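Lab notebook, bench 4. Still working through the backlog of constructs that have no structural model yet. Next entry is a single chain of 59 residues. Request: give me the structure tokens for it.
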Amino acid sequence: MEVKKKISSFNTPYFFSQEMIITKKSLNENQLKFTYQKQLISDLDNKHKEWSKSISSKF
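Model written out:
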């Protein structure tokens, strides 16, 4: 338990390094944006595959 106490009492705003400060809120927002963009790309890829199949079946 003492280790947890020491860690929680060590309260710094640094997340990765002292040169770059990133808040947890910012990190979470960026992760959500990335996940959303990844889903959009996946959807676009699936639509493109369907479109390719429909085009190839016409010829």
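Notes after review: Helices lie at 2-9, 24-58. Residues 49 and 55 are 10 Å apart (CA to CA). Flag for follow-up if needed.
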